[in-house]
Amino acid sequence: MTNRLPLTAPSCSDDHDPEALHVETAQQRIIAAITPLSDTEAEYLPLRESLDRVLADTVVASMDVPPSPNSAMDGYGLLGTDLPVQGSRELRVIGSSYAGHPFPGRVTAGECVRIMTGAVIPAGVDTVVAQEHVQLLEAERICIDGRSKTGDNVRRAGEDISQGQTLLAAGHRIGTADLGLLASVGMTEVRVQRRLRVAFFSTGDELRGVGESLAPGQIYDSNRYTLYGMLMRQHCQISDLGSVPDDPAALRSTLLAAAPHHDLIIATGGVSVGDADHVRRVFAELGELNFWKVAMKPGRPLTFGRLQQAWFFGLPGNPVAVMVSFCQFVLPALQQLAGTATTPPLTVKATSTSVLKKRPGRTEYQRGILSYDSAGNLLVSKTGEQGSGILSSMSKANCFIVLSIEQTRIEPGQIVTVQPFAGLL
Ligand SMILES: Nc1nc2c(c(=O)[nH]1)N[C@H]1C(S)=C(S)[C@@H](COP(=O)(O)OP(=O)(O)OC[C@H]3O[C@@H](n4cnc5c(N)ncnc54)[C@H](O)[C@@H]3O)O[C@H]1N2
Ligand code: MOO
Q: For the MoaB/Mog domain, which residue ranges apply (predicted)?
């Protein structure tokens, strides 16, 4: 084979490869290389349609929420100076304030108003006594005791949001609470970044699509399905370019056709050193290779670079390697492109209940099931066989067990680092 990039074969006892970048270095190189999308193609969307989109503008609150002081309880609104220090006191009920129907007058000493939760606090009132703490007397009179204190059950204007404050910053991905937050200041539409355009294709002469029949040596293409799922979860605008044969000319034309119309191109397979692994070589001829190979398992031959204005990931073909490298590298790249904060995934510590086999030299992402024992301690067990072709290990898992580069065999009872799938997949 010609034109092969050098590969230093790891020894049998460890997996060290001096050419492979550490995971953190590779992540930093990706973040450093990518500049966020400009907002020239940002669009206005009706509020509900903006769910999961990225804000193009910082939103400043145009009003206080709540706009007026209001009651937190159903009860009686009165003056704090009327609260008895000891014993009880009678007050005269002069009217009522309901949510949407404020009391128009002023309350003075010796008086009170019937008030409902959410109703505007009338002028003069600074305290609401819950009705459970009030004794009803005849002829519009009540009796209160010394249990309450001035200011009780009054929600001040702007206690949630104050006019002029930054409500949500540009680059924030709009979540479910944010839809309510934006509605609470009366916004009908928001300006959001366009969705990221991501093309993906698989490579391999052995691949057939679902619905086709398999000849000997052929397998179904599963990578385009996991990629579809992961990209849809990230709200990308996707182009599935299908399965491309192990043919440099076909790879070349697929890459060149996709580059002008996409922010990111993802290929799977063909990035290792086999005679039919053309993806990295073809990419390196056409574009700028940023790095090849990361000291991780699975996912070592990962390839990253740029082709015209599109970023490129050549993910290793093994189905688990695709998912692991997507989570660790494609996700931060998408976040960086979208201009959202690139926060590392949350990790927790858990006690392993399994023996975890590992050789030094690569960070490993084993697939685990995170659970609690009866005392509330976090436990994690591995999902059986851990080969990078064992996709069922991902399907059974709810977390990655992240074993650091120099870590070796883990015994049951040892504490390990775990990355839950929530927010990743
Ligand atoms: N001599 C060496 N061989 C290999 C090395 C190495 O360092 N030296 N690295 C191994 C590692 S680690 C990985 S990961 C793989 C990655 O290789 P490729 O990216 O070139 O992937 P392929 O060879 O094309 O495929 C690997 C495997 O995955 C299956 N596959 C591929 N695409 C799909 C798909 N779309 N759906 C389902 N399954 C797919 C493919 O049939 C192979 O079994 O290289 C090792 N070799
Ligand atoms: O790096 Mo590979 O993904 O171990 O099989």
A: 199-336
What is the tally of structural domains in the chain?
A: 4
Q: What is the CATH number of the domain that holds 186?
A: 3.90.105.10
Write out the DSSP string of 272-320: SSSTT--HHHHHHHHSEEEEE-BSEES-TT-EEEEETTEEEEEE-SSHH
Residues 172 and 299 in one domain: no
Is the pTM above the cut of 0.90? yes
**Whether residue 248 sits in one domain with residue 214:** yes
Q: Is the pLDDT of residue 2 over 70?
A: no
Ligand 2 pocket: which of 280, 293, 297, 359 to mutate (most atoms within 8 A of CB): 297
The answer to whether residue 86 is domain-embedded is yes
Domain that includes residue 85, residue range: 70-155
Is 244 part of any domain? yes
User: If you measure from the C-alpha of residue 345 to the centroid of ligand 2, how many angstroms do you get, rounded to a whole number?
Assistant: 21
User: What is the 8-class DSSP label of residue 382?
Assistant: E
Per-residue pLDDT of 227-276, as tens digits, reads 999 999 999 999 999 999 999 999 999 999 999 999 999 999 999 999 99
Interface pTM, i.e. ipTM: 0.98
Listed residue (70, 97, 78) closest to 145, CA to CA: 78
Residue whose CA is closest, atom 1 of ligand 1?
273
Of 279, 208, 272, the C-alpha closest to 248 is 279
- Atom number, ligand 1, closest to the C-alpha of residue 224: 35
Atom 31 of ligand 1, nearest CA residue: 317
We report the CATH number of the domain holding residue 415 as: 2.40.340.10
Same-domain check for residues 294 and 356: no
